[in-house]
Amino acid sequence: MNSKLLLISLLFTLLYSKHEDGASAEKFVFPKWKSMNLLNKELLNSIDHNSFVDIYVNDIAKSAYINKNNKLPEGSIILKPLYPERKRENLARLVIMMKMKDGYDSENENWWYGVYDKTGTNGWFEGKIDSCINCHEHMWSTDYLFSESVINKINTQ
């Protein structure tokens, strides 16, 4: 994959994303994302993100994600750094899912989505992002996660 395709992917996210939480939405930062639990040894090909990714999870999410539990607990964070090529260089952005309190977005299992810069401190898009929801909603049986296919890839590494 080249940087041109990555740019197109980012532009798609910019054009088709929508922040519905309004100006008063709580802001989150993830400056210590590299200290989270890295699940994979080798980069995974993410066709939907048009990138290669790592999968990081916080301690709250780790057991439930690895064991493919139906529902991840509130406070679970799944973070993916996106790279344009199959090497951990030229990090383009971070995509993040965080399980919120019941009632945040009940129709979509209370997942918050974020698209951040590589530092994890500048959110370009946050909240109920339509393009993220539209992609993940067909995975309702696994709590809106692609965890089963990802875990199968990780287990073969």
From TrEMBL:
Domain spans labelled Cytochrome P460: 44-147
One Pfam assignment: Cytochrome_P460
Among InterPro entries, the record links this protein to:
Cytochrome_P460 (IPR032033), Cytochrome_P460_sp (IPR038142)
Query: Protein name, please?
Result: Cytochrome P460 family protein
